[in-house]
From TrEMBL:
Signal peptide: none annotated. It holds the Pfam family DDE_Tnp_1. This is IS5 family transposase. GO terms for biological process: DNA transposition. GO terms for molecular function: DNA binding; transposase activity. Coiled coil: none annotated.
Length: 264
């Protein structure tokens, strides 16, 4: 893990004081545990198979830290911090945004899963994503595989955090929003307009060639980058909060890659 990325993460981690009367065994270094979490995210390896010789601790130790840090809001704060730095570097374009979703199979079921209409009714989940004009992820939502895309359009808009990084009002709403035919509904067009956003939703029953794909492709690329992490191609976690912690961490890592490339 880059020293620069660790310098941003370390201040966000909660401090766990030791009990002087019962100090017990010393906690494993947080940076090593985070490397173990990233190793699982990148490779998709099962927690119990995490190699001990790497020095990342046991899989259960990494799982507990992932859970605790997620409950403390570390991953969301990291994502917002990196978005602010991207804005400060003039790498965010809020003139437009795009939304889309992708289905993944949920091997063990659990909350935020449902029978998939595209996978013979097997249990699955959906990753709903909203990105800005360059394809940088602004927010993500995890739902069951049978949840309609259009139902998450407004929650996605509301999930975009206030992005600072420059003087003045933080960015929160794009000017235009692009989506495919799965979001075609007049009621939701009106709801989007209430956020002072101009909707560009492809209409059902019309031929291709609307030109909206020129702006929509960035969200498909963002989903492909997110699913480059092997742990996010198939959902193995029963707990939806653990799976969504991986999703948020994946979005943050992708933001860091964009920022690091620009700063080099």
């Amino acid at each position: 893990m880059d020293d620069e990325l660790w310098a941003r993460i370390e201040p966000l981690l909660p401090v766990v004081p030791r009990n002087p009367r019962r100090p017990g065994r010393k906690r494993l270094d947080s940076r090593k545990v985070l490397c173990g979490i990233l190793f699982v995210l990148y490779t998709g390896i099962r927690w119990e198979f995490l190699p001990q010789e790497l020095g990342f601790g046991s899989g259960m130790t990494c799982w507990r830290r992932l859970r605790d840090w997620n409950e403390a809001g570390v991953w969301q704060h990291l994502h917002e911090l990196l978005l602010s730095e991207l804005r400060a570097a003039d790498l965010l374009d809020f003139s437009r945004a795009a939304v889309d979703s992708s289905h993944i199979r949920a091997m063990k079921g659990g909350p935020a899963t449902g029978p998939s209409p595209v996978d013979r009714g097997k249990a699955g989940s959906k990753h709903h994503l909203i990105v800005e004009a360059h394809g940088i992820s602004l927010a993500a939502i995890t739902t069951g595989g049978n949840v309609g895309d259009v139902t998450q359009l407004i929650p996605l808009i509301q999930a975009v955090p206030p992005i600072r990084g420059k003087r003045g009002q933080p960015l929160r709403r794009p000017k235009h929003l692009y989506a495919d035919r799965g979001y075609d509904h007049e009621v939701y067009r009106d709801k989007v307009r209430r956020f002072q956003i101009t909707p560009h939703l492809a209409r059902r029953g019309t031929g291709h060639g609307s030109g909206l794909g020129v702006y929509r492709w960035v969200v498909e690329g963002a989903i492909a980058l997110l699913h480059w992490f092997r742990r996010l191609r198939i959902r193995w976690e029963i707990r939806d909060d653990i799976h969504h912690a991986f999703v948020t961490l994946g979005c943050a890592v992708i933001c860091w890659r964009r920022l690091r490339t620009a700063l080099c």
